[in-house]
Amino acid sequence: MGIHYDYKSTRSAKLMEKQAKREKKLAEKKAKRLAKEGPKKEENKKQTLDPNKPISLDFLTNPNKE
Description:
- The protein has helices at residues 2-37, 57-61.
- It contains 2 helices and no strands.
- By secondary structure, the protein is mostly helical.
């Protein structure tokens, strides 16, 4: 009966150990993935719609025209 008596008193500690182990494994995977893909390049996104300008019919029919 020692196992059943001990279960509830150590349950929270075991859960915390499992969670810490899981988080450690995920952190290692993330670090490995980031090292593998290299530094991220940030692309400069050109804003196609200016919020201050109204949308014209010409823009709707031919959006690639500059």
